[in-house]
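User: Hello, can you help with two protein structures?

Assistant: Certainly.
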Amino acid sequence: MSKHESAEEHLLLTNTLIHNINHQLSIHNWSLKILSVNSGISYETLKKLLNGKIQSPSFYTIYKLADVFHCSVDELAGIENPLSIQLRSLVDTKNQLVHLVEHMEKTLDNREF
């Protein structure tokens, strides 16, 4: 990987993190001040992070944000964790099976013997 690719990847990760934090703020209907109080991260740090002035936030900062938003660090950073992908796939399969069983039950209930 070249330095150029590394810089682009770093920028993408930073922008993704900023986007996901803003998304979580919207979901929770929180302001930066509320996030600061709930996370224990200073308002100024959060403001700099969301304005892109902090390019490499500490793991602790990301961890505290994920914790207060009740999501994983991977989710907040926009990283696809293989276990998360498998879990989503299992949940989708379960939902499909439940739907199929419900359909079969309705079909059997409507049959005349």
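That covers the first. Now for the second protein you mentioned:
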Amino acid sequence: MREVAEGRDLAAVKGLSFRNAAGAIVHNADRPVLEDMDALPFVSPVYRRDLDYAKYFIGYPHLSHTEIFDGVETFYRRFYFRAPKIAAVCGEMVRDRQMLVRRLREGVEFFGFLRERARASAAQRAAA
């Protein structure tokens, strides 16, 4: 949360629970529901900058990279490539030029991130 990262007083941050100096757990007022998820920034630049995926344990050592990526791809296709969602996004892009530009930019960034990750993974396997 931005407020915590900026060093604000924890008691003033809505939606936060924390332990105060006396050791008691404090629950602040609820944070308002975010109505426009598209107002959030896209995560690819943050992942590219901060996420070193090689440091994370994978609980499927018996599976090849191909099997893992195929499983993820299958899940993604089944749950996200559904006609109603695609129609809604396409309609949104047709109505709003800024949304069209944003969605295309995010897609290019995301697939660039995946390409970089795949290259790094292949280089890592080749070096092993």
